[in-house]
Description:
The protein is of the alpha+beta class. It is about 15% helix and about 40% strand. The chain has an eight-stranded antiparallel beta barrel.
Amino acid sequence: MRYSGTHFKSSCMKMAVTKYLLFWAVILGPFLPLAIPCNVTGIWKNELGSVLHIQIVGSELQGLYQSAVETAPGATGPEQQAKVLGVVNHRGLQTSVAFSVLWEGGSCSSWVGQCFQLPDGKRVLKTMWMLRSMSLSPADNWKSTRMGEDTFVCDC
């Protein structure tokens, strides 16, 4: 069997690229952070004391949010809790999430963030949130949306 010059050049190129990548992997490997997949199922607590119960079913996020704070008395309902619905992205080493809550008083909150598995085994969910409160008129619309960030730590 005879090999063409093109086949030989292609094989040599593949070998050269492989050696090049291997060289840089050995040199840079110790300096690159190791990403560990993160499981978001569990009971999470944020810095204000709110508790988030998450269960994952396929790519859907379901659960319950128990709020420790309210923008106005009764805004979150008598038990200050609501059903959580969202999605989770398992593609990649760090899991991303987006979930929402519709409060009994008519406002809604949404979070988007990423789960991190730390080297010590703890899981942290870093999120940005947006709260939309009811507005009585278009003139009051400007003060009906709030934004912030939450860090949830899993009680796992």
